[in-house]
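It is worth pausing here to work through a concrete case rather than discussing structure prediction in the abstract. The textbook approach is simple: state the sequence, then state the predicted structure, then interpret. We follow exactly that order.
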Amino acid sequence: MNVPQPPFNTTVDLLLYLILQKLKNNLQGMSIPAIPFHTATERLLYEILQKINSGNNIQAAYNNTLFVSSSYGNDWSAQKNNILQPYYTIGAAIENFMPGDLIHVMEGVYDEGNINGVLNYWFDYGAVVSFAGGWGEAIFQPMYGSCTVRGYGNFICTGDANAIFPGEWFGSNFDLECESIETYGNGVGCMIYQNNNFDQTLNTPIRIKARRIYSQNCSPVMFLYEANAIIEAEEIVCDSTYYPCFYNSGSSVGLIKNAKIVSNNTMPIQIDGYDGTLTLDNVTIYANNVYAYAGLWISNQLLNLYLKNTEFICVNTSTPCLRTNSIVNIYLDDNTRSNTDTARNPGLFVYQNKDRKIHLPEIFTEVDITGQTTLDLGNLQNQTYIRVVSSNAAETLHSITNAPQHHSFVIIPQNNLILTITSANANLAGWSDIVTDRSSIILQGLNGDWIEFYSGFSSQGSQLINFKNYITGQG
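Step two, the predicted structure:
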């Protein structure tokens, strides 16, 4: 038997056909449906199990399960724990749901929405919920209690409803794993909402994991008003040129991880509001609009932004990765990078407000400058403390290339090194020349001397390397 490679969800018909051919002598008298089998996979598997185990004590048993099938279900004759007599609609299964039950939705198309309540679901591969509801409605809109969804469901809104709209109004929580979430009207793919009038933000975040989250005309993901959520998706895609791919508002706490964010808007990620926290972990942001204002735009006040293993890919290489006019605390790891990093203009961050803050990892990185008069920081864009080492007792630096523009950086000579910093004439200095308040500054490693530089923030137009301050230790 030539068994296909997993995942089997792309080869269900072939796999079932091979099983039937292999076991045909054991399946005589069994009513086998015609190909394609995907219209009756669950039922067919159940009958195969029953047939091959007919002489044994092994039985396929279900406990506290309400089956739903749009192919052969019947809302009036359905029986709990009987896969051969499922419900026809999800709504009917909900009406008969009891605490501890599982609603098992088999493959098929279900035109249903506003699925609420304290419920547990499993969606088979090929199960599609296609909802044509309007604004204010959603496929899932739990407002109280805990709702858990697992499996391979595809949740599609063809009207103006949101696909997923959980809120913590009455202490609700929502935990979803699925194949895809899609909207083709004017609704949001995942709108996570916390009504702060009730002040019931949960310690447990709302969790959504999908292979793909897509929106044609609106944002695939929004965090609103003290939302607390984790989004994990292979792709988060937005075709709209009017809405960002991800929008964050209010004092929300959010995590987006393991995602590829693809946007045609001028701001793929837009963050507004006050006192929020957002973490991007293992995320690649594709700014596909040639007129993109920034890969990530921030107008928050006192936002804490954590970028871990984050990459910005901008079609227009003059597009800054991050632009802000607000007070922002930014925490970067050294794996945060961009295709707009170039020798003359790294362009990673553009500030439009003097009250800017950026926090980088407080770790020391060593660079060997033996025999060099130029220090190249092209691979150290996200470092603050740079310890220079040399096999010589003394070295002299005249210039620094590829200096980060989005934060100051500190150069510290190793203990046995005497480092001389020479200054160019400010009126004649080139792109990478060092400019200080004196012709030369001598730093002695044994004394603990150090010097802090900045290259001029992008919005100020300066591209010279300027000394900020230095201190000589007393030994």
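Step three, interpretation. Residues 60 and 232 are 34 Å apart (CA to CA). Helices lie at 12-22, 41-52, 90-95.
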